[in-house]
Amino acid sequence: MSSRRALITGITGQDGLYLSELLLSKGYQVHGLIRGQNNPKRVLVEEISPEIVLHEGDLTDFASIARALKASDPDEVYNLGAVSFVAHSFRSALHTSNVTGQGALNVLEAIRLHDPDNRIRFYQASSSEMFGKVQETPQTETTRFYPRSPYAAAKAFAHHMTVNYREAYGMHASAGILFNHESPRRGPEFVTRKITQAVARISLGLQDEIRLGNLDAARDWGFAGDYVEAMWLMLQQDEPRDFVIATGELHTVRDVLEIAFAHVGINGWAAHVATDAEHLRPSEVDHLVGDSSEARAHLDWEATTSFETLIKGMVESEVTAH
Ligand code: NAP
Ligand code: GDD
């Protein structure tokens, strides 16, 4: 069994939970940064394993990150913490920039001071949102960024800092440019979970309609469980570098509705869906689809869960939970 140690920021989030499970299954000692004095999501982490060691801290608080590094003395650090909801980032741009952008720099700098010999390997949760108003399709590791939200701009800053720490200080720092990935653990504010939760409730007679924004938005949606595997693989490589992680398939919000409603036996979903300007964004990302040939070639990574299986599984999980 390995005795490697990992420190995860954002451990209470969707990816943090899946990554914890993956690392525990590989024999890692898992540490997590958890914010707030009484975080209600602590229980989710404790459900996965009481052995996970939690360190109170916040990405905007450099000293708390330094303390967590000292206490955990990790071999690998996964920076998954972020204000991650794009719509919210427009309403809270400065805070998003502090957490999602400068927060990553705080982690990089704390690692550099704690570990001048570059023993620690670092993973940054970069995002396909950085491609924004896409400059080519599909998007690859070399596609130019065109951020369309405070979230995306903050992620682009964090991405460039990760590359810079790698090049300037020789740090084993890699960024995964991950396309949308979902699961029953997805936050209810994101569109796939919002739809699958509502569809389950509608099928059970608990709700009549769902209010959405842009139904034509198209994304490359995969399963979060597959994607955390890619994060881990990136840190097992001899050389650090960045990878696009995606399924290569494009689907619209309408496709999500179609599959989710059909799965509970409701055809003609339009009667249950209202569009609401409140859910439109000041500047939208119309479509994102990734080419992860590099990940296939160098990490032997491939998405294994189809879009249809993903959405049906999310509906099933909601029905069971009610
Ligand atoms: P998520 O479920 O929203 O989780 C975000 C995590 O960040 C939570 O644990 C949250 O903690 C933590 N956090 C927020 N503010 C913080 C702060 N000030 N200090 C420390 N931690 C803070 O996100 P996710 O879907 O798991 O995504 C993980 C990462 O990948 C994020 O960086 C996201 O931007 C990025 N990403 C996600 C996707 C995707 O499709 N899921 C795609 C590309 C990139 P609380 O529980 O305390 O709120
Ligand atoms: N959330 C939400 N709610 N989105 C809606 C709605 C709605 O009611 N109606 C339409 N949409 C559209 C959004 O406008 C967007 O174009 C698309 O559905 C997906 O929205 P989200 O599920 O909120 O995800 P996202 O693509 O904006 O961002 C997610 O993926 C990024 C990777 O590309 C987040 O997980 C980011 O953190 C991540 O970086």
Key structural traits:
single chain; 322 residues; alpha/beta; Rossmann fold; UDP-galactose 4-epimerase, domain 1; 2 domains; 7-stranded parallel sheet; two-stranded parallel sheet; 42% helix; globular; binds NADP nicotinamide-adenine-dinucleotide phosphate; binds guanosine-5'-diphosphate-alpha-D-mannose
Brief characterization of the structure:
With 322 residues, the protein is of the alpha/beta class.
Structure description:
With 322 residues, the chain is of the alpha/beta class. Helices cover 42% and strands 16% of the residues. The strands form four sheets. It has a seven-stranded parallel sheet, with helices on both faces. A two-stranded parallel ribbon has the order 7-10. The structure holds NADP nicotinamide-adenine-dinucleotide phosphate (NAP) and guanosine-5'-diphosphate-alpha-D-mannose. Residues 84, 86-87, 127-129, 179-180, 189-191, 194, 212-214, 217, 219, 253, 279, 281, 284-285, 288 line the site of guanosine-5'-diphosphate-alpha-D-mannose (GDD).
CATH top level label of the largest domain: Alpha Beta
For the residues shown, what is the average pLDDT?
97
Largest sheet: 7 strands, parallel
Report low-confidence residues grouped into runs of 5 or more.
none
Q: How would you classify the helix and strand content by structural class?
A: alpha/beta
Distinct bound molecules: NADP nicotinamide-adenine-dinucleotide phosphate, guanosine-5'-diphosphate-alpha-D-mannose
Distance N to C terminus: 39 Å
CATH topology of the largest domain: Rossmann fold
Instruction: Please indicate the percent range of residues in DSSP E strands (runs of 2 or more).
Output: 15-25%
The helix count comes to: 11
Helix content: 40-55%
Q: Describe the strand arrangement of the main beta sheet, using strand numbers.
A: 3-2-1-4-5-6-11
